[in-house]
Design a protein that fits this description.
This protein is mostly beta strands. It has one domain: Elongation Factor Tu (Ef-tu), domain 3. It has 1 helix and 11 strands; from the N terminus they run βββββββαββββ. The strands form 3 sheets. It has a 5-stranded antiparallel sheet with strand order 3-2-1-8-9. Strands 4-7-11-10 form a 4-stranded antiparallel sheet, covered by helices on one side. It has a two-stranded antiparallel ribbon with strand order 5-6. A hairpin with a 5-residue loop joins strand 10 and strand 11. The longest helix is centred in the middle third of the chain and has 14 residues. The mean pLDDT is about 90.
């Protein structure tokens, strides 16, 4: 089994029994500036700080690849609704200065089994850096 990384206790891994990995990862950050208007001259800009970084990625959850789709979705919902700060690790590197909160999620339910149970879903997760 190859562990690709994790978000909290959601493990991204590839093995002959299970495949759950991330795709289209995007890490972004921004700085804050104040603009001070001055009479008869150029405005003055002032650096006022750094906004929390953001991290966004997609996860494909498929029962056929060994993933319990609903249980993984419930974990994500719980993390988001409780405001839990999570470690994000990809490969052997921890991302961010401390932890991350799930800021937003969106899910596309793709397939169902013959009983109407969710079989696969594409989940987009948006994280915001949580500093202590």
């Amino acid at each position: 089994m190859a562990v690709v990384g994790c978000l909290g206790d959601i493990v991204f891994q590839v093995s002959d029994e299970k495949m759950e990995t991330i795709d289209k990862a995007k890490w972004s950050g921004s700085a804050r500036y104040a603009i001070h208007q001055r009479h008869n001259t150029n405005a003055l800009t002032e650096f006022t700080g750094i906004d929390p970084d953001r991290f966004e990625f997609e996860i494909t959850l498929t029962h056929e690849l060994g993933v319990d789709v609903m249980s993984e979705l419930v974990k994500l919902w719980d993390y988001e609704r409780k405001g839990e700060a999570l470690r994000l690790v990809l490969g052997d590197k921890g991302y961010g200065k401390y932890r991350w909160n799930i800021l937003e999620h969106s899910m596309v339910f793709e397939n169902y089994d013959k009983w109407g149970n969710l079989y696969s879903a594409m989940v987009t997760i948006k994280l915001q850096e949580y500093l202590r």
